[in-house]
Model the fold of this input.
Amino acid sequence: MSDRLKILLQHLLPKQHLTSLAGRVAGAQGSAITLPLIRWFVRKYRVDMNEAANPDIASYNSFNDFFTRPLRVGARPPATADFICPVDGAISQFGAIDDDRMVQAKGHRFTTTDLIGGDTALSGLFRHGSFANLYLSPRDYHRLHMPCDGKLSRMIYVPGALFSVNPTTARGVPNLFARNERVVCLFESPEYGPFVMVLVGATIVGSMATVWHGVVNPKRTGKISEWSYADQDIVLKKGEEMGRFLLGSTIVMLFRPNTIAFNRDWAPERPVRLGEMMGNSLG
Done:
């Protein structure tokens, strides 16, 4: 199937209904189809269950339990670096923010303001800063971790579409990551200042969850929602879990100018692993 036809089908498919159905199937506890579905998924995507804390696929009560399974202790030792990669996945794009514009794919850009839901004061913090966009494929570990220490200050849920976020769609759908449903998490690092982690939803992504809130978007109301944590002391250390996708997607990170020098081995489409060196401080 050509890329153009794949993109056309995504415009035509009832993405919200498909995603709601997938969420119900994935969340069903003790369903008769759970184990056969997990077996098919492991075989189809060549999932390495030896990395899981619990490698017994028959022990998972739901597909979501399997999909968000924790890793065994020691499976992802953290690199000695100021910033570590927060996920298993692949690099979509990364680098400098041109004023407020970031590269989505060849021929496509999107803005920090659009990505975070229109807050110009917040997006202004990251003008001429740096970004990293990491894609999690179905076979990847789907918990998200902290690239550095951070204190949570705000979370914003931005409603949107549910296009796939795979590389083909990134090349074919303009403004994809600022168009899809997303959860924007703003942290303050004592060493590096404010940074943002944006969890981007996609077709079949049942929900997104954080460790401090739980599922952020159980009902899609079409309205932006915001939570302030200025009066709370929610501090997460580098490498700690911060959230998870209940089925896979993409994470976009924003850093202020002169904050991070990315790993020289990084390149678009390169696979990455949780805990590997993402970069070091420019400070």
User: Anything to note?
Assistant: Residues 15-27 form the longest helix (13 residues).
